[in-house]
Amino acid sequence: MRTAAGSPKAVAVPETLSPRMAARYGTDRSSTGLRVLITCVAVVFLAVVAVITWRMAAPGAQSTLVRFVVVSDSRVDVTFDLQRDGSTETTCVLRARAQDHADVGYAPVLITAGRSDLQVTYPLATASRATTAEVLGCADAAPPRVDPPQFVPGTVNPPQQPVVDGT
Fold it and tell me: Which of 26, 37, 47, 137 gets the highest tally of CB atoms within 10 A of its CB?
């Protein structure tokens, strides 16, 4: 409220409520329900964050390059170890590069369901002589998120063997 002169009117707030007001409105406003709700929301949020972090930190399929052997100007044999859930198919992406770091071979390879630990040797076809080869990544049930091929314009990726037996 304002007074006639426009200045605010001071309102006194009692430190304690009268017995009648305390009986009517209560003096002990317990926020137990609010505390329980906040705790539940925080626990659910932390659980979701933990699950997402765990899934990102421990992918279902893991690969390790063992070796690669340049067989000819048109092929490099890539050997890698694969640890995975053997009950599902796994897709691995392999890449071979030339001395100038341009891609000369690229293959998404489907490895059929079977053993959970296996060593795969894949004959990666190349458009020209490779100097290095790598496994870009592997994932169960879906292609892994990896870099797309980066061929020099005019270079075509040679046909690749699309499936490897995982048994």
Answer: 137
Cα–Cα distance, 58 to 46 (Å, whole number) = 18
Length of the chain: 167
Question: Does this model's pTM top 0.70?
Answer: no
8 Å CB contact between 106 and 157: yes
Q: How far apart are alpha carbons 95 and 107 in whole angstroms?
A: 6
Per-residue pLDDT of the chain (167 residues; tens, 9 = 90+): 444 455 556 555 556 777 787 777 766 666 778 888 899 999 999 999 988 887 776 667 899 999 999 999 999 999 999 999 888 899 999 999 999 999 999 999 999 999 999 999 999 999 999 999 999 999 987 888 899 999 999 989 999 988 988 88
d(CA 46, CA 149): 38
